[in-house]
Design goal:
The chain is of the alpha+beta class. The protein contains nine helices and nine strands.
């Protein structure tokens, strides 16, 4: 469930920890009253300067039981850091709440003291903005394994704010896309309904991409991969063949910004989409899903052809690459016609 307002969880916490000893990554565990399994945090971004580079432990000596709040929390919180600090100062009453009425009736001034505030804020696609905000927690910090300067901290706060805003927009877009989906049918749905569902997947994929620390290339055993491809659907084989040709031509330039990198990304999308639509595990895949996915690969092929046209201005050899992609595109069109015909029979 996405929360547009902050989900405040301080009262139900028993204890936990936040570890920001690896720059750019903040992870942790939070234990809730009445439950043994912790809420786990994997967040992109750094804390404020007082916590950055440390492992901070915290404890609430007066937690309350609130199953409704707990039920809304996803156990794995993947997202981005907002403001995280334990050095904010806040005026806090030094008398219990049940004595406030007596003070008001007697016209007496309520006594306050300045206390450090534990303020931990993050944003996840699962729960939106989540906040721990309390002056009553006991906090212990380890030594700093690295530090932020004041300038770096200001820059980090701006980055965290931008990341949270970006995630908030993704959450809103995903909620709007989900609102268009029909969940009432227990039977197979058509390609148009699957297109709506794929839009939700797009937003989840974008969120995952934002959380990645770095791009990691998969190293595959080429011999085993080729043997596996022989048993695959003909479109998957052709998409794999075309992808290999493009990657061999691009070499290291597949990571470039510009038409080469865009060509690599588009062809990777075509292959992985065909692989999803006709998996090698014998799974039953709905025709509507296959049609929706294949229509998207047509657009990726068109983009790839356009990138080849650009690259041909400086390298004639991309004409052969373009021909291969044209053939793949025509095969996708034939496959779409075939699947539609089968679904009507």
């Amino acid at each position: 469930m996405i929360h547009t307002m902050a989900l405040r969880i301080a009262d139900i916490i028993q204890h936990g920890w936040i570890d920001n000893t690896s720059p750019g990554v903040s992870k942790g565990e939070i234990y809730i009253l009445g439950h043994t399994e912790p809420i786990r945090l994997f967040l992109k971004g750094n804390c404020w300067r007082d916590i950055a580079g440390t492992k901070m432990q915290f404890r609430n000596n007066s937690p309350t039981l609130d199953e409704e709040t707990y039920a809304t929390l996803l156990h794995l919180q993947k997202g981005v850091v907002g403001d995280m600090t334990c050095s904010l100062k806040r005026k806090s009453a030094t008398i219990p709440l049940n004595e406030f009425e007596d003070y008001f009736e007697g016209g007496k001034e309520i006594p306050f003291a300045w206390k450090n505030t534990l303020y931990l804020e993050w944003f996840s696609i699962a729960n939106g903005r989540v906040l721990i905000d309390s002056t009553d927690f006991e906090v212990t910090l380890s030594d700093h394994s690295w530090t932020l300067s004041e300038t770096q901290e200001q820059h980090q706060r701006i980055e965290n704010s931008h990341a949270m805003n970006q995630f908030m927009q993704l959450a809103i877009d995903m909620a709007e896309a989900e609102a268009e989906i029909s969940f009432t049918s227990s039977e197979e749905v058509d390609e148009y309904e699957w297109e709506k569902r794929l839009r939700v997947k797009d937003h989840l994929d974008e969120a995952q991409w934002l959380l990645e620390e770095s791009f990691q290339e998969e190293i595959l055993d080429e011999e085993e991969e080729e043997i596996g491809m022989i048993k695959r659907h003909s479109l998957v084989q052709l998409a794999h063949h075309t992808y290999d040709i493009v990657m061999e031509k691009l070499g290291d330039s597949k990571l470039d910004n510009g038409p080469r990198g865009s060509l690599a990304a588009a062809m990777s999308y075509v292959f992985t989409s065909a692989d999803d639509a006709w998996p090698d595990k014998g799974l039953k895949i709905e025709s509507g899903y296959r049609l929706a996915v294949m229509k998207r690969t047509l657009l990726a092929c068109q983009n790839s052809i356009a990138h080849c046209n650009t690259l041909m201005l400086e390298d004639d050899s991309y004409e052969a690459i373009r021909t291969e992609i044209h053939h793949l595109r025509d095969t996708i069109l034939d496959t779409i016609r075939h699947v539609r015909k089968q679904s009507k029979e």
